[in-house]
Amino acid sequence: MSDEVLRFEELTVDFTVGGTTQRAVDGVSFGVRAGEVLAVVGESGSGKSVTALAALGLLPSNARAGGRISFGGADVLEMSRAELTALRGRRIAMIFQDPSGALDPVFTIGAQLVEMIRTHQPSLSRGAARERAIELLRMVEIPENRLKYYPHQLSGGQCQRVMIAIALACDPELLIADEPTTALDVTVQQEVLDVLLAMRSKISGAIMIITHDMGVVADVADRVVVMRKGAVVETADVHELFDHPTQEYTQALLDAVPRGGPRESTSVDADVAALRIDDLVVEYRGRRGRTVQAVGHVDLLLNPGEVVGLVGESGSGKSTIGKAVLGLAPITSGEVHVAGQALTSSSASDLRKTRARIGVVFQNPAGSLNPRGTIGQSVGEPLAVHGGVRGAELRRRVEELLDSVELPGAWAGRYPHELSGGQRQRVSIARAISLDPGLLIADEPTSALDVSVQATVLELLRSLQDRLHFACLFISHDLAVVDQVCDRVAVMSQGRLVEQGDRESVLRAPQDPYTVRLLEAAPVPDPREQSRRRGLRLAG
Amino acid sequence: MTDAVLARTLDEDVIARRGVWVTVRRRVLFWLPLAVLAVLLLMAIVPQLFSSADPRACDISASARPSSPGHPFGQDLQGCDVYANVVHGARASLSVGLVCTLIALVIAVGVGTVAGYVGGWADSILARLTDVFLGFPFLLGAIVVLNSLGKRSVLSVSLVLAVFSWPTLARMVRTTVRATRDAEYVQAAKAMGFPTTRILSHYVLPNSIGPVLAVATLTVGGVIVAESTLTFLGLGLRAPSISWGLQLATAQSRFQQAPHTLIYPAIFLAATVLSLITLGDVLRDAVNPKGRS
What we know:
The structure holds two protein chains of two kinds.
Chain A: E1 4-17, E2 20-33, E3 37-41, H1 48-55, E4 63-71, E5 74-75, H2 81-87, E6 92-95, H3 99-102, H4 109-120, H5 126-139, H6 156-168, E7 174-178, H7 186-202, E8 206-211, H8 214-220, E9 223-228, E10 231-237, H9 238-243, H10 248-256, E11 275-285, E12 291-302, E13 307-311, H11 318-326, E14 333-338, E15 341-342, H12 348-356, E16 358-361, H13 375-387, H14 391-404, H15 421-432, E17 439-443, H16 451-468, E18 471-476, H17 479-485, E19 488-493, E20 496-502, H18 503-508, H19 513-521, H20 527-539
Parallel strand pairs in A: 3-8, 3-9, 6-7, 7-8, 13-18, 13-19, 16-17, 17-18
Antiparallel strand pairs in A: 1-2, 1-4, 4-5, 9-10, 11-12, 11-14, 14-15, 19-20
Helix pairs in contact in A: 4-5, 5-6, 6-7, 7-19, 8-20, 13-14, 13-15, 15-16
Chain B: H1 2-9, H2 12-16, H3 20-25, H4 28-45, H5 82-118, H6 120-135, H7 138-149, H8 154-181, H9 184-191, H10 196-232, H11 244-252, H12 260-287
């Protein structure tokens, strides 16, 4: 078709890993039309990023590509190194996931913008390039005095907007954004997406956005390509896709997006709270003796068997509260009671006994298991250390635990790197419940996982909680996830609790303006709702 | 991506039969250096097995003569048999190299782990302490210490060399331990209330010691040569001691006239270091679960 800027035709990409060849992209064909926003959506391993990298000739050296990628009448796969260099940046620009990693930390953002402009337009004088840099910054809504700032002086969202400015410096025909907002908070994500969409009217080119988030797709896309295991599953207009998905996989993907629903509370009335936090203050000593208050005067109560969601954006202090309970953060003032036991006034041996009653699941399933130990050793270690269980009895208990998280007991001999992310998180959960804890602290347990995997892990957590009746402090940035699993919700902002209460009252009828903003910024998988919200934002 | 592929292709029966030994057993790069080291070790323990000639029976009239029947490696400046000297020198050189590295490693792991794991003021104090040792001129220090010791044995020379080689290793241990300390699995272990000794021995050290061991194997060679430097200054093992270092020290000034006196001991030194490095690499990969087949 003539109006297509970029077209993939039967693209295949093979990776050679340790002598075997793995097909990452298998016969992918789709086109990006001029002026449109095309979303490529899929889970990790679906080949969406590899496809995008192939369009820029940026595949790693162990990859071999076949098929055809036509851009402006030429085949990208056939291009020489010099032709590719001319193509990148000038005609196709790319934005990556991690904005602070993509900017050079030793130069000011102004210097980086000017460099980009002058590399591709050598005829421009330094002064003219500076003028253009200021204009670009204004376009992405960053004040021009920030030109002299270094990347570390800007927030993540600002860095990503600078990246967009750099990408747009040469007015490219195509902008590829690979998970541009995944590393950002929801309110910041909204700002970046707004800027990205505003760009659309100002530049002539098309935008190809790669994401795993159906909410983002609903928010920005005109057309959607759904990928799975290296192949295109479905290509459709955004409204059509969300209203009438023709493929089973698309339907499954949409269903896996967490949505709240009515649920029985599992809270048990008891005299002793599973966790009581009174007026907790956590301060860190920063540089030059300055103290930084991470958590300020927080009160929180968890009854036995109750799941409480602690929501907030990065830097809000939600994880610090979890760490303070676990003894990984200093308690400056206030008191934390776990099952009636005060943490600050306990002896070391009492403290150890209390710790054994707390299970913990961390965010990064790859990082929270000892890479040198088998998963059997990891799961059994709390039993061995705190319970003194040994030998055959230990092996039996480990098998039971693995069984309870729906992993084969024979897997005890595997190492963490031989498991997928979701499986590793199941191992973490098995380890957390090994001592039958009264309290489970789950710090962003699913945010590193794909949506479909996230759905199964959440379900597992729920069913275990129903069976074992532990209280759970569920720390998350994702309101939809919290909506799905929690009985009560507490919202944090800048180290303070701004609102807490029943799930229904906080999430359906929020009182605090911050909660309202948070709820509105979280994209929902419904294109009509998203465009309505955007209209309201732009009007207001 | 690679991890996911691995996870899928793993058979259950493969899991049952794998471990350090199974991985290492089939590798030539494990057996070859092991054989070389075994021969060298045997040489150090019973040199008579390899050479019946007396290394101290010298014929001054045959000074610096190249290889001839009865003297496969030739003769050195004093007319002593080079082969016999190389064989009899293995004991002193290997002991100095291994003992010194071992002492340095023990000090380094101790100091580095405390500095890296505890951090704060302990880190500052220990960092300054290592700086003092690093800043002290090696030769000056060795001269002072060895002169005041009087009697020089393999142990005293090793100790002096260790005193000056542990700070570099300790700095490395500190850096790797620091990086591991903040890893999530260590945080997880702390959160589960495991005792500190267990966290150190099961979590921190196994995950941080790899690069340090690699550098330590290199240190062995460096120490053997350093011993020769001391000897050259009249401070190391004294003649009538025999060591590769001594041979290298005396041979280096006459390299042009009698290259064989330098080359043969150097080959033995190189073989030792190379075997240690290769063996260290193979073992490091085998001990790491990700490196196993």
